Amino acid sequence: MDKLIVEGPSKLNGSVHISSAKNATLPILVATLLCPYPVKFVDIPELMDVSTILKILQSMGLKITKNGNELIADASNLENQHADYSLVKTMRASVLVLGPLLARYGVASVSLPGGCAIGARPVDIHLMGMEKLGAEIHIENGYIKAKCEKLKGATITLPFPSVGATENLMMAAVLAEGNTIIENAAMEPEIDDLADFLIAQGVKIEGAGTSRMIIHGMDIKALKPNPKSYRVIGDRIEAATFIIAAIMSGGDVRVEGFIPKHLTYVLETLTKMGAKLEIGTDFVHIKNSPRLKGAALETAPYPGFPTDVQAQMMALMSIVNGDSIVTETIFENRFMHVPEMGRMGAKVTLKGNSALIEGVETLSGAPVMCTDLRASAALILCALVAQGESEIQRVYHLDRGYEKIDEKLTKLGAKIRRVKG
Ligand code: EPZ
Fold first, then answer.
1. pLDDT tens for residues 316-343?
2. In the annotation, is 382 catalytic?
3. Are residues 57 and 162 in the same domain?
4. Most buried of the four, 65, 329, 349, 376, by CB within 10 Å?
């Protein structure tokens, strides 16, 4: 297993271009299952999770061609509608294939995704919605066995604005008979991007990005290939990670290639804490921030504070002037970065789903272990500003969702090297 050796402290300077969003790329690649023709993409990010989803799609017969920064996905002739446990267990977003397979073939056999480090992560909302659309679903030997004559449009009210369930049901609704209304839909920018992709194939969708979305069901023959290659939106979570890294290091960094509007709550919180930010339409310029002051925040569905930036924010809070409190309301076990940050001198007390962080002057380098994607990012941020050397183990967690993060940080002046393991 690879590890990263980070020598701190370093001041980051320069500019970094953000890659396309992992959490938009995954559902959009899955949505090509609906399209009986080749779909062209540009700048699909090279991430472990992307190669996993492509492996699952290829196991069903999707053909992938890559030339340079272009990727063509062709689901004209799928061979099966089975998503195997061996692949699904490595990435729970694989459950998103359920909707398009049911919509197009009326049958699907998808391994129940296991939980993961940050929580049990059930898929009950996904399955409730599919049944509302007329699917018959039962669980057999750890697999979701689903079938239907033809999905029928329905009004589905989600008990929680689940991102994955919203995406799964959007895709299922595309080929259903009649219209589907999703009430209490997730409103994340990645949902909006999936809708934009589907609209580019000829689907009629209203209210994407709001809590009430209407998908007009259609015949598969009405889907049409879009002449333009599709480019996924910039990754707002990666952008937030680099913005926080720049603030922690006191550097002068321009983070570009994403939409700052997608990070409003995060940028407002950082500004309130004292960060000096120039916010453009497709960049944020961080200018030598002073030592910030603490804050209180609670994660929430979009447009609230994103849970995927919670760990990185705690890394920042560990070195601000004063105390902070963070409450995690989305996942039940998303504080696993805390003990590891403690090994670097961070002072964090956990109480239920809240963390009290007492800002310290400096952190010290130490060997630490990654446990999940965003916890890994938090450890990198701490190591960048810590005194001395840190060894970040099990960086495969990081490689799931950050494209070439060590190279990007090195370009900004970080002293970081990967040791192949
Ligand atoms: C997506 O996960 C993201 N993953 C996550 O990012 C992100 O943290 C999450 O949305 C919340 O924003 C991708 O997009 C691939 P949810 P998802 O369904 O769809 C519960 C990262 O770091 N729930 O909105 O799984 C669930 O247990 C990853 O990039 C049910 O109870 O999130 C959780 O507590 C981590 N039943 C909450 O809802 C269901 O059927 C949020 O889950 C579905 C979800």
1. 999 999 999 999 999 999 999 999 999 9
2. no
3. yes
4. 376
